[in-house]
Amino acid sequence: MQPKHRQFPSKWAADSFTEYADQAFNNLVATFDNNKTEYPYIQQLDTFFKKILGNMTDSAGVVESMLFFRTHAAFRAGCMLAMCGHAVECNAVLRSALENALYALHISQHSGYGELFLRRHDSKEKRKEVRKKFEWESVMGSFKQSNPLVAKTAEGLYERMIDFGAHPNEKAVSSSTKINRLQDRINIQHTYIAGGTLHQRRSLKTAVQVGLCGLIAFQHIFKEKFDILGISTELSRIIGETRLVTKREW
Predict the structure, then answer these.
(1) Mean per-residue pLDDT for 125-146?
(2) Which pTM does this prediction carry?
(3) How far apart are CA 66 and CA 46, in angstroms?
């Protein structure tokens, strides 16, 4: 186990990049210490991922299992970015987490898609076939068949992440930019780290929703495992608490 208190190198935060990294790290710690709304759910969802990973003992759903690992890794990375205050940049990583989870569900519902997924780079023909079979509308369609209510939330969440940073878009730029019109010039300020702001709170909420949607997708793949570990019951509780499938904000 790593020590809780560590000594940073003497030149740490003495240059522009590590100064920036130090500010981000301080925001990460501050979010952990002060955020009592979203972070507790992030912690719980991460625990659920870990429980499933600790019980990946059977050989069924090999590709789906690999995508579970990637979903968890992207979820963690996206949560860290959000906690650090990277309220725009976290959207691209969180979108990847959701995509990994829904790809896994899509594969589980279509015979032969797992092997096709693994053979993407075998030839130009295979690459073309993968692109066709894994068009996003088809992937989301598999989620809609399994869980229409949560899929509707996931669909809106996916578009929101694209709007706020997963793609270069107006909302991603304008939400982190402040323009002051002075008498003789225009002063443009751009926020790199949005610690302690409503923009960061939105990114933390997005992280929780992505984690929930991802786990629910995998619940349809590994239902027995989720039920035995008690995760299905816990997910239902969190869905109710966060009102995931309603328009109300928690």
Answers:
(1) 97
(2) 0.94
(3) 17
